[in-house]
Amino acid sequence: MKSTDMSDFLNFAKDYRDREAGLKGLDNSPESIRRRNIEKGIKDFRTFCNLRNPEFFKPEREYQTQICETLQAAYEKRLKSKTGEIADILIINEPPGFGKSYTASTFITWVLGNNPKTQVIAVSYNQTLSLTFSKSVREAIQDEEIKGDLDYYAVKSFFPKLRIKYGDGAMERWSVEGSYMSYLATSFDGSITGMRGHIGIIDDPLKNAKEAVDDNKKDEIWNFYKNTFQSRMLDGALVIVIQTRWASDDLAGRLMAEFPGRCYELKLTALKEDGSSICEDLYSTKDLQMKAATLDEDIWLANYMQEPVDKKGSLYGTFKTYDVIDTDKAERVIAYVDTADTGADYLCMIAATVIERYGYVLDIYYTDEAMEVTERETARRLAFCGVRDCLIESNNGGRGFARNVIRFLKELKAFKCMVTWFSQSKNKKTRILANASNVMDQIIMPEDWEKKYPEFARHIKKYQRKGKNDHDDAEDTLTGLVEFINGDVKGKKKARLGSKSRFGI
């Protein structure tokens, strides 16, 4: 924030210190502690939140710290996009029930306190929600201190000159003293006239799952943003989109695709990588796991894990499943391995029993662990499944990986497993798209495959026919497995069949 914008408030702080000048030696008194807290809260949004509502904003809630620090960094133009440019569009994707709207409204009060001349345009999916947001900001500004209660911090405790302008009673449009126009609340079917914004907030643009699959509704929101909302933003304005994900082409998705150099995304998932809740005292791990088990998977992934899946654009549909394999009909047990090319890639190994050109999946190994781990583990799984013929892509280190797998197989005395490699020269995405129907027809998964291989399943469901995909290792391996079954790819040598008693099924 600019020093000129803060002059009134710095003068207030000085006056406050002057009034307390006679209290030397009382640096740890309640009054002195309160004064220091106020001074810190003026400068630091996270502190402001903690003091304003300690029942909700708790220091131990790390996800709140992430949101608060990111909001302040965006306001102070310290955030950079993936391309290295200063981001002027902040996207916060957060699960429902974690207080995103309340945090955003608290942020606006803090911004108006620091700079009363700030003009804010706030948009929600309907006028009722938009007015609720506006009311939250107004009531916070109008809240009074409690005389004698040194532990209660009203907005006026930090910003005593911040007041709603007399006569501005309209909830949808109002000002603070010292400003011509401060706040406009509207919806996507409303209008923005007579005001331009330093900060534009879009809170929950989509209402529900029904709107998430309505292309007309999503287009309506996008056109409103491009043609109306953006045109009302002043030079250097900050746009904040705070929402729960619904679809890959929702407003957040379109903004990140259209303006990668302007966007900064803060992505908060309900469950962390270790499977625990991001805020145990707000929503327990047990509760979230129950939601994951009961909610429609697409809703869970989008709303709670911020990974929307566009069903219409998904490459794969519902896989066939099996309960028991008829081992008497088993022809061979094979495996296809796609090694990790870079640090962002996954190793994927799929072992399957082949019966009449159908591949009955026995095991899936899908991981981003280091090669020294995956080489030994791949060998162990090949031996356990009784694989006779394993094919490994030799691109980008695959040949060395194959040699080490062979060495570990010998240590396990799995001599009947033939490991060969080949170089894949065809375009990966073209192969994946061309073989998608064969994958759906010929690959048969175990009944519990989604629970048994959750990350593999998640990436498979997320893969889109069009556009860029973050990962393609699972799809590449499924494609390679089908090609292996159909004889479209072969290793250097033909593997021996071995006895059916060693199939491991």
Sheet with the most strands: spatial strand order: 3-4-2-5-6-1-7
Secondary structure tally, helices = 19
What can be said about the biggest beta sheet? 7 strands, mixed
What is the domain tally? 2
Secondary structure class reads alpha/beta
At the fold tier of CATH, the topology name of the largest domain is Rossmann fold
Give a verbal description of the structure.
The protein is of the alpha/beta class and 505 residues long. It folds into 2 domains: 4-269, Rossmann fold; 320-502, Nucleotidyltransferase, domain 5. Helices cover 39% and strands 16% of the residues. The chain contains 19 helices and 14 strands. The strands form 2 sheets. Strands 3-4-2-5-6-1-7 form a 7-stranded mixed β-sheet, sandwiched between helices. The protein has a 7-stranded mixed β-sheet with strand order 8-14-11-10-9-12-13, with helices on both faces. Helix 13 crosses helix 14 and helix 15 packs across helix 19 (473-485). The longest helix is centred in the N-terminal third of the chain and has 16 residues, at 127-142. It is elongated. Mean pLDDT is 87; it is low at 1-7, 12-26 and 493-505.
